[in-house]
Amino acid sequence: MKPLPSASAALRDQLSRGAPPKLAFAQLPGLDLTCARLVEATLQSANLRGARLRCAELVQARAQDVILDGADCSGAHFGAAELSRASFVRAILERASFRKATLADANFEGARMQGASLVHSDCRRVRFVEADLRGADLRGARLHGADFSRAQIEDAHFDEHVRLPWLHARATHVFVAGQRVDRPER
Questions:
Q1: Can you tell me the distance from the alpha carbon of 102 to that of 167, in angstroms, rounded to the nearest whole number?
Q2: What is the DSSP pairing of strand 179-182 with strand 157-158?
Q3: CA-CA distance, 141 to 108, in Å (whole number)?
Q4: CA separation for the pair 132, 41 (Å, rounded)
């Protein structure tokens, strides 16, 4: 009987054929996918803990419940990806783009998201607890129920109708509709 290929071997094979990778439930912790083109990939419930996805393209990926805890996704593109309930705990997401992504119920606790774009993304009930969102762009994002407890949101950009998360955030100012807004005096 022929041995089953490993998940990483299956991924290499799929990428070499140009097909969107189908890796639902795959165990790929620590895998180096730097600059990989994973457009329309299927990654539901995959374990990519500690993986390197710097500058990777995950546009329109179907990755509900994916685990990317501690992963380096700096500069990665998750545009229009389905990432509901995804876990990015302590992930590095500097300059990552989540434009029009569905992130409902995702966990970004302690994530480094400086300069990230979440423009027009669905961030309902997302946990940004202790996340570093300095300079992030959240214009047009749906933020109902999002938790910004102890998050760093200085220089982050929000829409004018957003109720600012001052209560538990560590910011002195943010940008609302392009205008700087200083934290109210306590």
A1: 26
A2: unpaired
A3: 15
A4: 28
Please report the beta strands in 74-159, taking only residues with DSSP state E, as ranges in sequence order: 157-158
- The radius of gyration computed from the CA coordinates of the chain, to the nearest angstrom, equals 17
Which residues partner with 72 through β-bridges?
Answer: 52, 92
From the list 96, 91, 98, the residue with the least C-alpha distance to 72 is: 91
Q: Exposed, middle or buried: residue 167 (CB in 10 Å: 0-12, 13-18, 19+)?
A: exposed
Q: How large is the greatest C-alpha to C-alpha distance in the chain, in angstroms?
A: 71
Q: What span, in angstroms and rounded, lies between the C-alpha atoms of 88 and 63?
A: 12
pLDDT digit of tens for each residue in the chain (186 aa)?
Answer: 433 345 566 666 666 677 789 999 999 999 999 999 999 999 999 999 999 999 999 999 999 999 999 999 999 999 999 999 999 999 999 999 999 999 999 999 999 999 999 999 999 999 999 999 999 999 999 998 888 888 888 888 888 776 655 444 555 556 555 666 666 555
Taking the C-alpha atoms of residue 15 and residue 136, their distance in angstroms, rounded to an integer, is 31
